[in-house]
Specification:
Helix 4 runs antiparallel to helix 6 and helix 4 crosses helix 19. It is globular, with a radius of gyration of 32 Å. It is of the alpha+beta class and 618 residues long. It has 20 helices and 24 strands. Strand 20 and strand 21 form a beta hairpin.
Length: 618
């Protein structure tokens, strides 16, 4: 028999009754039932109930074991009585009577319990991650992650992609975040960088004549942490293709992503890739307040500026006299109550706004008709009973009173709302309020039960602007990926930079950006012009992107690709809200590894070898 186990803790069933077996694992739970000791023995694969009574040769030894001790047992498989079968686990038909036991690793008092669903501070969980990872949910999350990566690899190979590895130590390159720098011992004063992405290398692979490339690539960015982003490193499905247009990339990667979500989505609906909408960046900002919209929520915002221009609502009317301002409405079907409207107004105030205007529509009341006609409520009720008055609908709220019934009705008609519905309004320069508007849309959809929680909704966001203007200095800089091919090529770059769109695209799912990519700018003269507009001279371009710029002079093919975030994909599939739940050994919010003690102070000898000295801040 094997030194540690003949079976896993998920293998045994009624057909093994009478067999002598050897199991190894962790003591999940110990139960004393009147002198009979029951142990739930757990390994990576499952759970088996083992037991001992005073007749067991090792009963006294078994009495000493505690939770999370690692043990090996020998015993005889026994079939459970029908009334004691546990249908919740694969081994629920049997139990193993212990004849021998060996303690493989005793455990001290536990800083967190593996058994049960207790909540622990994140600091405790990360400091003792090796224990946290033993928990059932974490085992499931990490297994899911491994299976997702394996599935992605298989799907990419089936599409005739080949996997190549790109360097981990390279030169610094601006990818939109800070680099992690690595000092060179052999070249004092010079630094390598950990790659923010394999961007330049994968383009060089295309120039080298390889038609399709992919890898599950580690990427390193010194970023501020968020719930959906690691502050140090992450993994992505990175791919590139030659002789392709934007739609070719969509047609290639969409079935891969859809297939993974169908395979591991637990039965949640996944729309067919050919039905995934393509939404321009500007429309996404207008309709959803974000470039990563959650389309499970049907709410679509609209511009309603004309209804407030010159109206009795002075705040909006005066606002619209300023250049570049507009008023947007957020429809809220079924949200037509003052209580809900006041709650959303309070939400806006928590987000730093003075408030959020609203109108809600309700069935007309006898009181409002009485006020309108100057008669008593009793007379109104009599007229209603006689059929001379029919209760219709009315608009309520401060905005409705200020702008009057005609404008209010025009807004209702435009938004397609009716009795029991509401609309919320924000105004100003769009970039100043779009983020709050997007959050409000999400809250409204969730609170009113409009968001379909049993679905993965995808959308391609396209036509990203390449440039933006600094509001204070007026300088033009890149707003998005500087390596994207401008739509219209050189001709577009000779016009208004703020009108130039790139062949750049993102794939959004349920409010998260899952994929980002572009058709690349592979022409050196176009590349120089694109960077010149953003204030980068030819010498700087050649210095910072020398390999890529040089390669483009030797027959570079048209090419494009994208990258999909592995961590975010698994986070969505695992139905987790925090990306650290699907990363084996994540950093905390302050980019610290509490378990390994990183970052730490280097030894003096190491600093001397690297010709470095730490300068203390005053």
């Amino acid at each position: 028999m094997h030194a540690y186990r003949s079976h896993s803790c998920a293998d045994l069933n009624a057909s093994h009754a009478g067999d002598t077996v050897r199991l190894a694992g962790w003591v999940h739970r110990v139960r004393d039932h009147g002198g009979v000791l029951f142990i739930d023995l757990r390994d990576h694969y499952g759970m088996t109930q083992v037991l001992a009574d005073p007749d067991s040769p090792v009963f006294s030894q078994i009495e000493t074991v505690r939770s999370e001790w690692c043990i090996r047992i020998d015993g005889v498989v026994k079939k459970r009585d029908d009334s004691l079968v546990n249908p919740k686990i694969p081994t629920g038909e049997i139990e193993v009577f212990i004849r021998d036991m060996e303690v493989l690793g005793a455990a001290e008092e536990l800083p967190l319990m593996v058994f049960g669903d207790q909540e622990y501070p994140e600091e405790t969980r990360l400091r003792y991650r090796f224990l946290d990872l033993r928990r059932e949910q974490m085992q499931a999350n990490m297994t899911l992650r491994s299976d997702v990566v394996a599935s992605i690899r298989k799907r990419m190979w089936e599409k005739d992609f080949r996997e190549f590895q790109t360097p981990i130590i390279t030169a610094s390159s601006p990818e939109g975040a800070r680099d992690f720098l690595v000092p060179s011992r052999l070249h004092p004063g010079k630094f390598y960088a950990l790659p923010q992405a394999p961007q330049q290398f994968k383009q060089l692979i295309m120039v080298s004549g390889f038609d399709k490339y992919f890898q599950i690539a580690p990427c390193f960015r010194d970023e501020d942490p968020r719930a959906d982003r690691s502050p140090t490193d992450f993994y992505q499905l990175d791919l590139e293709m030659s002789f392709v247009e934007q739609q070719d990339v969509f047609d290639t990667v969409s079935p891969v992503i859809a297939g993974v979500f169908e395979e591991f989505g637990g039965g949640r609906k996944v729309d067919a890739p050919e039905s995934w909408p393509q939404i321009s960046y500007r429309d996404a900002a207008l309709w959803y307040g974000t470039d990563k919209p959650d389309l499970r929520n049907p709410i679509k915002m609209q511009v309603v500026s004309d209804h407030f221009r010159g109206s009795g609502f002075a705040i909006f009317a005066k606002l619209l006299e300023q250049e570049g301002t507009e008023i947007r409405a957020i429809p809220a079907p079924t949200g037509g109550s003052r209580k809900f409207c006041d709650r959303m107004n309070a939400f806006a105030q928590k987000e730093g706004l003075p408030g959020m205007g609203y109108i809600f529509w309700r069935k007309q009341s006898a009181d409002s008709i009485a006020q309108e006609r100057g008669i008593s409520v009793k007379e109104v009720n009599a007229l209603i009973k006689a059929g001379e008055i029919t209760l219709g609908e009315e608009a309520a709220g401060p905005l409705a009173k200020n702008i009057g019934p005609e404008r209010t009705e025009a807004i209702r008609q435009q938004l397609g709302l009716g009795v029991g519905d509401a609309a919320f309004f924000l105004g100003g320069k769009p970039k100043a309020f779009e983020t709050v508007a997007g959050k409000a849309r999400t809250v409204i959809g969730d609170e009113l039960g409009l968001t379909d929680q049993d679905r993965f909704a995808f959308a391609w966001i396209v036509d990203f602007p390449i440039y933006e203007k600094d509001e204070e200095t007026g300088a033009i800089d890149f707003e998005h990926n500087p390596f994207s091919m401008p739509q219209g090529g050189m001709d577009a770059l000779n016009g208004d930079p703020l009108e130039v769109k790139g062949y750049q695209y993102d794939l959004a799912c349920n409010g998260y950006e899952l994929v980002s990519g572009a058709i690349r700018n592979h022409k050196p003269e176009v590349m120089l012009k694109a960077f010149e507009i953003a204030g980068y001279g030819a010498d700087e371009v050649k210095n910072r992107f020398g390999a890529l710029f040089n390669a483009f002079h030797y027959g570079a093919p048209p090419h494009g690709g994208c990258a999909a975030g592995i961590d975010r994909i698994v986070m969505l599939l695992a139905d987790q809200q925090n990306i650290r739940e699907v990363i084996m050994f994540p950093m905390n919010q302050r980019a610290e590894d509490l378990m390994m003690g990183a970052p730490n102070l280097p030894q003096n000898e190491q600093m001397r070898e690297l010709s470095l000295r730490v300068v203390q801040e005053d």
